[in-house]
Amino acid sequence: MTSIRSIAIAICFLALPRPGLRAQSAWENPVKKSLGDGKPVIGLTVTVPSADVVLQAARLGFDFVWIEMEHSPITLETARSMVLATSVTRTMPFIRVPVNQLWTAKRALDIGALGVIFPFTSTPELARQAVAACKYPPLGDRGAGPGLATLRWPAPGGYGDFADQNAMVITIIERKEAVERIEEIAAVPGIDVLFIGPNDLSHSYGFRGKETPEVKEAIGKVLAAGKKRGIPVGRTARTADIAGFIQQGFQFFQAPSELALLAAGARPLLEAAGKSTVETQPRPMY
Question: The domain spanning residue 204 has which CATH number?
């Protein structure tokens, strides 16, 4: 009798929902969720090939890390270690790939990135290509080989559906042509963020790093298109700018790089010790 009762209890226990798995299956990319809730998010730009920098950024509370593979020497092997450094944290690993191509996005996602940042997405065709690169068929063209990605994201319901729902598509608007076609680009389904690169955009307008009235007008057009379509809009930002940008409607912020923050923190210390810094002129952060 005792044996039958024990078996019955065991069967009932196995039939109960398992909290850990249920919580994981309902998991949602926290950056995507925050944006959907109308909240701002901010990520540290990481240009130095270092998992320690990423882990420190995560412990400090950055929403995501912007792993920079367009303008830095970070390799795929190092990027993989940087992605793994975000494990057991709420900080999401995003990678800016060197070029908007299927294969660059595939390699970033297959090492565990949960968002791809696509530079120079200046046409609706390139926007569609970016979305397709981050979705498995029939939604897109991503190839199936996520062995390493599943080590970072062991989704109980299967990695494919998990990735299609949570891997973010961030398209960078940084050319005059992109501004002129922003309504078409914003109409492409599957874009999670329209990100403005003010420095490259100013170069495209011929002003090389200066946010002139013409450049600000272009930025305003992108912001308006995002609001119209319900797509979060992002841009670079420093401490003094963020509150004003949030008021304007921006949500997704690329913070300065770890090197820029190191310099900003070191200067007051050096000045207190009577040392002068060699570099005094401001530089574009993006």
Answer: 3.20.20.60
Q: Please give the model's pTM, rounded to 2 decimal places.
A: 0.88
Cβ-contact 66, 96 below 8 angstroms = yes
Task: For residue 65, tell me if it sits in a domain.
Answer: yes
Strands (E), 47-149: 64-68, 92-96, 115-118
Nearest residue to 193 via CA among 284, 3, 63: 63
Residue 189: cis peptide before it, omega within 30 degrees of 0: no
Alpha carbon 211 to chain centroid distance? 24
pLDDT tens digits along 54-104: 999 999 999 999 999 999 999 999 999 999 999 999 999 999 999 999 999
Lowest average pLDDT, out of 1-10, 44-53, 267-276, goes to 1-10
Tokens encoding 99: 């070029």
Residue 272 forms part of a structural domain: no
Name the 3-class secondary structure at 123: coil
pLDDT of residue 232: 98
Intra-chain end-to-end CA distance of the chain, in Å:
73
| Active site (catalytic) residues | 71
The secondary element (H helix, E strand) that includes residue 49 is: none
